[in-house]
Design goal:
InterPro entries: THDP-binding (IPR029061), Transketo_C/PFOR_II (IPR009014), Transketolase-like_Pyr-bd (IPR005475), Transketolase_C (IPR033248). The chain is of the alpha/beta class. It contains 13 helices and 14 strands. The strands form 3 sheets. Strands 3-2-4-5-7-6-12 form a 7-stranded mixed β-sheet, sandwiched between helices. Strands 9-11-10-13-14 form a 5-stranded mixed β-sheet, sandwiched between helices. Strands 1-8 form a two-stranded antiparallel ribbon. The longest helix is centred in the first third of the chain and has 15 residues, at 5-19.
């Protein structure tokens, strides 16, 4: 069947709630309205008070989920927009992330915090933000961001079943992306990156909303005779160092593509990890294509803020293609 990512997420929630009575879904406007992006459409009608609306109080939403998770439920909560979650961040950082450690493993929190994030819808102020770095930098949280229909279903099911808290980042502009899929589907587990396109000349590492951009850039580069490999991280925490390093060691070049701002972001961490693990295999420095270090601009300017194919290809062009490596710096297998 042909499904959108939004519909796949809805199916994952519906199937999880049918199979397990302890799974609850709540948040702002997720009940009768079905959520502003319609991800929870129809759940309240089928499951009654197991899918319900809450007041506009994000800290209260997450705090209530903590109590429920400690008492045998598996709550799934929605932060209506990315920046709406900031009032709840104290709960997330101080309680959600630390409960297992605080109780020396006696108490775990099987809960999911769904966060629609990033741009592409022309939202400003609190309606577009790339907040993944906050969560990835908080020990105790798993951070997941699907970019395909199959992953949207499978990773959300895995998140709901996980014994620990998961921040589930949903790229807003991908809600309407469609693909053929047969449900239920099970894809690779947390901590497993996926090579979406094979290549030999350079690796594009991307996640969430940047994955389709990287794939489009790789297709355009192929017309010019360059073979770019695209690695979709799928989860930021846990991070698949092995898959990323394997790809970069094969291609010798790496560009990280991420929509979030560049300074101190997830893209910087990825670049550092690649540099540390693949230094002797790199023909050029690891480069990044990111959003600018400014708040998301209004719709007329957003297209200049979001990393696009042209910016990715321009960055690929800066990977020192014409430089001849000094053989003194080749590792033995490259020198033969």
């Amino acid at each position: 069947m042909t499904l959108s990512i939004g519909k796949a997420l809805n199916a994952a929630l519906r199937d999880a709630m049918r199979e397990d009575d302890t799974v609850l879904m709540f948040g702002e406007d997720v009940g009768a309205l079905g959520g502003v992006f319609r991800v929870t459409d129809g759940l309240a009608a089928e499951f009654g008070d197991r899918c319900f609306d809450t007041p506009l109080a994000e800290a209260g939403i997450v705090g209530m989920a903590v109590g429920m998770a400690m008492n045998g439920f598996r709550p799934v909560v929605e932060m209506q927009f990315d920046a709406f979650a900031y009032p709840a961040f104290e709960q997330i950082a101080s309680h959600v992330a630390k409960m297992r450690n605080r109780t020396r493993g006696a108490v775990n929190l099987p809960m999911v915090i769904r966060v629609p994030y990033a741009g592409g819808i022309g939202g400003v102020e609190h309606h577009s933000d790339s907040s993944e770095a906050y969560y990835a930098h908080t020990p105790g949280l798993k951070v997941v961001t699907p970019a395909t229909v199959a992953d949207a279903y499978s990773l959300l099911r895995e998140a709901i079943a996980d014994p620990d808290p998961v921040v589930f980042m949903e790229a807003k502009k991908l809600y309407w992306a469609k693909d053929e899929v047969s449900l239920p589907v099970t894809t690779a587990p947390f901590g497993t990156a996926e090579v979406r396109r094979e290549g030999t000349d350079a690796t594009l590492v991307a996640y969430g909303p940047a994955v389709p951009v990287a794939l489009e850039a790789a297709a355009a580069a192929a017309e010019d005779g360059r073979s770019l490999e695209v690695v979709d991280l799928r989860t930021l925490v846990p991070f698949d160092d092995s898959a990323v390093a394997e790809s970069v060691r094969k291609t010798g070049r790496c560009v990280v593509v991420a929509e979030a701002t560049g300074f101190a972001g997830v893209s910087a961490e990825i670049a550092a990890r690649v540099q540390e693990r693949c230094f002797h295999s790199l023909w050029a420095p690891v480069l990044r294509v990111t959003g600018w270090d400014v708040p998301y601009p209004p719709p007329v300017l957003e297209k200049y803020h979001l990393p696009g194919v042209d910016r990715v290809l321009d960055t690929v062009d800066r990977l020192q293609w014409d430089d001849v490596p000094d053989p003194r710096f080749l590792v033995p297998e490259q020198a033969t």
